[in-house]
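Researcher: I'm comparing several assemblies side by side, and this is the next one on my list. It has 629 residues spread over two chains. Same procedure as the others: predict the full complex and return the structure.
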Amino acid sequence: MTATTITRARRLIRRPDPGGNGGRDGNALIGHSKATPYIFSLPAILLVAAILGFPVIYGTWQSFFRAPSLGAPVEFVGFENYLDMFSGTEFWHALNRTAVFVFGSLILGTVLGLVFSFALFRVVGRLRFLRAVTVAPYIISNVAAAVMFRLLFNSQFGAVNQVIEFFGLDGLGWLSDPGLAMFVVIVTQVWTDLPLTILVLLGGLMTIDKSYLDAALVDGATGWTRARSLTIPLLTPQLVISTVWLSYSTLTGLGVVLAMTGGGPLLATQTLAMEMYTVAFRALEFNQALAIATFILILNAVLTLAYVGVARRYEYEQ
Amino acid sequence: MTDAQRPGGVPLAAETAAAAEAVTGPTREEKRPAGGRLRRGLRQFLLAIPLIALVVWTVAPFMVTTSVSFKEKGDVFSEPGLIPRDPTLDAYREVLSSESFTSSFVNSVVVGVGTTLLTLAIGVPAAYAFARFRFRGRHLLLLFTLLPRLVPSLGIMVPIYRLAVATGQLDKRTTLIIVYTGMLLPLAVWLMVGFFQQIPRDIEEAANVDGATLWTRLRYIVVPLAAPAMITIGVLAFREAWNEFTLVLVLTSTPGKRTLPFELYLMQGIEGLANFPAEAAFTLLTVLPFVLVYTRVERYVVAGLVSGSGK
C-alpha cells in the first residue's frame, strides 16, 4: 500500500496528469484518455450484442408473429404459435424423446464421469498421460464423433456387433431399431461431453480434504461406503456444475442427433432441438420454430434452477 | 501416418498395453497369502478395470475409424477385423483429391485462423479495459458482455439465418468468422479479465513511472505476461471454428463455401451405398490437424476446458 502511494507521488511529481484523468478517479495509470476504456471494450460489447443478445431477443419477439402464407409478411398473433405447438402431437413426442435423451445422457454421463474420475484420481506416475487421453473427444467435432460411432455400431461390420457375435449372440440393428438408436445417440453424446465432466469431478476430488477420508478410514468405512456417504456428497458442487452442463449440452444439442440419425428411425430420436430444426429448415415455418426455440431456452433455465435447488436441499439434509 | 492420426500423436495401442500391464502387472505376483499384500493387489486390480474401460471408451472409436479408413470399399463388409488384411491408401487418395475436401479444408483453415485472430484482437483489449480501468458503467457493460454466454447456438440459429438472408451475408467466410467471434467473446473476456487482474498493478505502475505509455505497456508488459491465457483462448477459438456445425449448416449452402464438418455431414448420405473407407478417411483428416496441434497445447486445452465449465 505504501509502495503504491510512493509510486503515485513520484509519478505526480514527474508527470502531472498528462492523460487527462490520471490520479483523479483513483486510476494510477497514465497514458490514456477518458475514452480509452470505452474504445477498448466497445467492439466486444457490440459484437456480443449483435451475435447473441439481439438474435435471442428478436427471436423471442418474432415467436409472437406469423406469416398467413409462405412468404407473406408476418402479422402479430399473440400466443398462437405456442398454442399450436402445445396442441400438436409432434411437440409432445419430441418432448418425450428429449426427456429420454437428456436424462439418459445425465445418468450415463454422471456414472461414467464418477467411475473414470475416481480411477484417474488414484493414478500416479507413468500413467498420468491417461488424463491427456481422456480429453481427446473434446477436440472432435460432433459430426466426426457421429461418423465414428456409426462405424462402431454398424449392424453389419461394427465392432460392437462383432463382440456380441463373438459370444455367440445375434448382432443388433443398433441404428435401425427405434429403441436402440436412442441408446446409441446417448452414448455418442456422452462421449463428446465426458471430458468436461471428468475434469470437473477430478478437480473436485483434488480439493477434498484428505483428513475427512482418513477419518472415515479409521472408522472402518471402506470402498463403496466411503464413496457413497462421504466423497460423493463432498463432490456436490462439482456434480451440480457437470449436471447443469450436460443437461444444457444435450437439451440444446443438435449436431450429434442430426449427423447420426437425423431424428429417425421412425422419429425415435426426434428431440426438441431436431423438431425446431425440422420446422424451421424443412417446413420453413420460422416463426413456429422460434416458439420451440424459446420453449427450449425457458426449459433450460427451469431445469438449471431445479438442479441447483435439489442440490441445496440435499446439502441441508446432510 | 498411423501414429500421427491417433490422439496425442503417440501409439495408443502400445500405450493401452503398457497401461494394462503397468496396472495389472503387480497383481500377478500377489499369490502369497500375506493379507495386506493380497488386499493391495486386489485393490490395484479393481483400479485397473475402470482405467482399461476408460482407455477403451476413449480410443475405440478412433481405432475402428482408422481401421476402416485403410480398407478397400468391399473389404469393409467381408473383412470386418480390426487390422486390415491388405492396407490401402485409396480412401485417403480419394478424399484428398476431391473438391469437397480441399475447398472445405481451405475454408476451415481461413475461418479458424480468422476467428482466432479476431477473438484475440477484440477480446484482449476489452478484457484489459474491464480489468484495469475504472470507468463509468463498467459493471453493467461487463455484465452485458458475459451474460450472453448462456445463449446456445440453437437459440440463435433461426434469427441469425434470417438476419444473414436479409443482409445478403450467406455463404461468406467473413460471416462465419464474425458469428463465431461473437459467440466466443463472452468466454474469452471472462478468462482474460481474470488473468489480467492477477498481473500485479505495480508492474505497470513502475513502467508508468519510467514514462511508458499505454501502448508501450501493452506491447512490452501486458501481452507478454498474458501469453498463456491468450494461447488458451486462441486454442478454444480455433477449436470452436474448426468443429462448429449447427450454424455453418444454415449460414452456407453452396459447394465450395462450406467447412469440414458440414462436408463430412453431407458425405454420409450422398451415395446409395455409403463409402465407409472414404468417410473414415475424411473424418480422420478432419481430426488430424487439431490432434497435431493438440499434443503441443494440451495443457492450454485442459485449462480452457475447465474454465469453460461454469457455463
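Model: For your comparison table: The first helix of chain B runs from residue 2 to 5.
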